[in-house]
Each structure stands twice: as structure tokens, then as C-alpha cells.
Amino acid sequence: MTQPDHASCWQQVPHHLGETGLTSDAEADVCVIGAGIAGLSTAWQLTLENRSVIVLDDGPVGGGQSERTSAHLSCVLDDRYSELAMRRGEEACRLAAESHSAAIARIEANVRELELWCNFQRVDGYLFNPPDLSWDNLDAELVAARQAGLVVERVPRAPIESFFTGPCLKFQNQAQFHPLKYLNGLATAIQKRGGRIVSHCHAEAIHAGKPHRVVTPSGTEVRARSVVVATNVPVNDRFAIHTKQAAYMTYVIALLVPRLSVARALLWDTLDPYHYVRIEDRSSPQGDETLLIVGGEDERTGQHDDAEARWGRLEAWTRQRFPAAQEVKYRWAGQVMETLDGLAYIGRNPGDDPEIYVATGDSGMGLTHGTVAGMLITDLIVGRDSPWRELYDPARKPVGGASDFIKENISTAQGYAAWVTPGDVKSVDEIPPGQGAIVRRGLHKIAAYRDQAGLVHEYTAVCPHLGCIVQWNHGEGTFDCPCHGSRFNQHGEVINGPANVNLEPVKHT
Fold it and tell me: Domains of the chain by range and CATH?
């Protein structure tokens, strides 16, 4: 989906493919759209309830944002318990801590019971301030996290010999794993229990009814009592969710380091955007190697085109603190959907049929939120109540975040200003091979890409979701929508919702 040199360190593992394409109509109790962490977690839980399941995905298992993560498994909220307490109260904090802890425990149980070789291990996590910030914000987080029920303590420093973090919060019993190995194993387990996984199969439309119908471009369809849309961003509605979350790109690098030179732990600082760090041991054709994975430098999707600078700042930040770091082996980016309270939207899709469900709004914690989705949505489908239902209800209204809501929607609206601006270049003749740009042609804007052979491919630059003008992303080699985060590859093919169709090719007369 992205340029090969921007593949994540997880993508060296072959993807589980399942079946390729839906060759005939099919029926199931539940159709799950999306074979990432949320979709497969849901499908697995449903098979344990003896529900028949069909999973559809545009690509292979784990081929979306689940393979673009840094793979922290944590119950430490990216947006902080102190913030959640102010917005939604102490009970919301307790339930958030409980659900994310349960998600890690569920992953651990799956690894153990299914004998999945995915590098899962428990590690401690450390939250620290940059040197120029006071202790006050960590003190508030310590109180809020303890009230939420987490085991957390103040310690003098994180266990990193190469730099002094200063006082930090130590969260015990967090975890890490290899996400693609885990998802491949989960997919195999689903199939062993009779579930079907159909890769390279686009869900073009969802028609509510009894049964619901999920239609593919070839005309084949899946008929199901329930439908779960687990596509990172819902592709089945235009407004209900999209005004309550914003799409951000987060950047990651992985550097070689000598084995045992950096302590095994999860690290986060409190900058905005913050940095996140972990260690990964992996095997390669050249032998075993240890990677230092560092991420951060988040930005609104499609509103900047400076990936190289952001990767560069990450590298500079890392080398200052980890002098043992060697070459940058991998660098990549992933899309994060930020909600107003830092919690995902999981449950029945607002204003839709009650048997259509969504899982979105990962808020930087997609692996645990996706696992929560598997447990919560399964409870709803089989008729059990869940103590987490209201916490993650997609229909909930913004609480205590009016200014953030207004700010994000103003930022979204600014994306439409590109309708009246000049293009990136005056002519497609200025676009070098392997690059793209937005070109103004009269009243129209064109998304143009010149391939390595010199052939120019042209598409309308209007996002088919709600009409925003897409922007070229040099770092990822994609056309990105600055309004709601839809993304398209060099050939105009949609790779991330909420858009569910490709950019329209320009017809030359």
C-alpha cells in the first residue's frame, strides 16, 4: 500500500491470505469487514460463541493500520487518566483501565491457548517528563491512575542508562508483541473453527435488512444477521462518527542497537505530540538483530507534507538519548484516529440498524482498543450486557471537550480551502518520476502521479467521501484527504476510509 522503503519492521513476515476474492454469494451469522486487530478479535470471539463468521478485507490479514503500529500493549491512556477524569469522571477512568487491562490479558490468553509464536512478553511502562516540564502533570496522572485501579508508582528515573529521564511513573505489567504474527495466528484459529477469511475483497456497499447484505464490486454478496465494520474508519456512514474524531499521521523509525544495550520497557514522554519507545528482537536472513522502535511527531493527515523532516527529528531525538543506536533500518507512518475523550467508538453504529456495529477511534491505542472491540461487540451480538457499553458508545456526545471539538472541526473545514488555491505545480510536466502532485486545470483540481516509466496517471483530486481536495504525501507516496483522513495510493485506489470508492480517473477527450 505504501512505498517499499517505508514498510514497517513487522511487514517482513508474510501475510495470512485466507481465500482470495468472494467467488459466490455466502451466508453467515456475522459479516466482519476488516481483517485487522479489531476485525479478527471480533471474529475470533464470535467463533467461540458458535457464531458463523465471514471476514472480508481489501487486502491480506493485517494489511492496514495494524501493521503500521509500534505494537505497545498498554492500559496507560495516551490522552491520560487525569484528562479523562476531568471530562467523564472517575468511573469512566476505572472502566477504561479495566477494559484495556482485560484486552492485554485476552491477548495473553490467546497467545497461550493457541500457542502463538508472536514475541509476546510482559514489560513495565514508564511515563516521564521532558527536562523543561514540571512534575505537576505527572503528579495528577499518578493520582488519577491509582484511582482508576492501576498499579503505578513514582520512581527516580526510567531504567535507561544512556540518559536521565528524571522522576517518572512506573506502570507494572504492560506488554508487547509482534502484531502481524499474532494476527496471522488468530486468522488460522478462526478458520479452524469454521470461520471464513476472504482477502482482496472490497465491501462496496452495506444494505440493511433481514438479512443485511454486504455487496462486493463483482456483485457477489454476503448475507448476515449482523455486520461489524472494523475498517479503522467507518465506511458505512458519512457524518455520524466523522465529526467526532480527527485523523492524524504518526511517524516511526526502527534503529539497530546492540543486544541488551537498551532496557526492555515501554517508554512515553509527556510532550504533545509525545514520543514512544520500545525494543524488539527479531530474526532476519542476516541473523538475529535488536531494533529500537521510536515514534511520535504526529500531524493532521493531509495538512502537511513534511514526512522527511519528521523522521529526521525523530532520529535526532533518538540519537541524543540512545547513543548506542546505529543505522535506521526501517521508517514508516500510520494513521491514528483521535477522539475527543481519548476512548474509541465501539458498538452500534449511531442512527443505523441495531445489528450494524462499528469499531473506530483508536486514539493511539489501536491494539488494545481493537481487542476491547472483539469482547464488547461480541457481548452485544450474543445479547449480553457489558459494563463497557456506555463508556465506548459511538452515539455518546462530547463531554468537557467543546473547545477541542470546535478546533478539530475548524481544522477539517480548512481542508476545503484547497478548492480555490493554486496547484502544487503548474503542469504535470514538472512532476518527476515516482512522485505525485495536485494540479489546477481550469476550475478542476487533478491528482496526478508520474510512474517510474514516465507515464502520468490522472484522477480527480476530489475525495469521494465529502468533497475535500486530497493532497500528495511525498513520504508515503499517497494522496491523503485533510478533512476526514481518507487515503488513496498512486493509482487512485482507496486504502483508508471513510471514502469507500477510488478517485475517479480523469477522462481526456
Answer: 120-174+246-336 (3.30.9.10), 416-496 (2.102.10.10)
Q: Give Cα separations from 160 to 72, 102, 120, 126, 431 (angstroms).
A: 18, 29, 22, 10, 46
pLDDT band at 97 (very low <50, low <70, confident <90, very high): very high
pLDDT of 428: 77
Confidence of residue 2 (pLDDT cuts 50, 70, 90): very low
Asked if 503 contacts 460 with a C-beta cutoff of 8 angstroms, the reply is yes
Q: Which amino acid is at 111?
A: V
- The Cα-based distances of 313 to 131, 310, 319, 371, 384 in angstroms read 18, 5, 10, 32, 48
CA distance 267 to 297: 15
- How far is C-alpha 192 from the geometric centre of its chain's CA atoms? 27
- Kindly give, in sequence order, each residue whose CB lies less than 8 Å from that of residue 213, ignoring residues fewer than 6 positions away: 206, 207, 221, 222, 223
For 149, residues 6+ apart whose C-beta sits below 8 A from its C-beta are 94, 97, 98
Q: What pLDDT is recorded for position 280?
A: 95
30-59 b/e (C-beta count within 10 Å ≥ 16 → b): bbbbbbbbbbbbbbbbbbeeebbbbbbbbb
At 140, the pLDDT band (50, 70, 90 cuts) reads very high
Ranges 93-107, 210-224, 397-411, 430-444, most confident: 93-107
8 A C-beta contact, residue 338 and residue 407:
no
Whether 11 contacts 68, CB under 8 Å? no
Q: Dihedral sign, CA of 45, 48, 51, 53?
A: positive
Strand partners, 221: 215
Neighbours of 332 (CB within 10 A): 27
Task: Specify the pairing of strand 26-33 against strand 53-56.
Answer: parallel
Average pLDDT over the chain, rounded to an integer: 88
3-state secondary structure 207-259: ECCCCEEEECCCCCEEEEEEEEECCCCCCCCCCCCHHHEEEEEEEEEEEEECC
Rounded Cα distance between 209 and 7, Å, is: 40
Q: Count CB atoms within 10 A of the CB of residue 135.
A: 13
Spatial distance between the Cα atoms of 30 and 399, rounded to a whole number of angstroms: 33
Higher-scoring residue by pLDDT: 172, 284: 172
b vs e for 122-132, b when ≥16 Cβ sit within 10 Å of the residue's Cβ? ebbbbbbbeee
What sign has the CA pseudo-torsion 5, 495, 63, 482? positive
C-alpha closest to that of 436 among 444, 177, 446: 446
401 has pLDDT over 60: no
The pLDDT value given to residue 77:
95
The mean per-residue pLDDT over the stretch 36-45 comes to: 97
Over 80: is that where the pLDDT of 301 sits? no
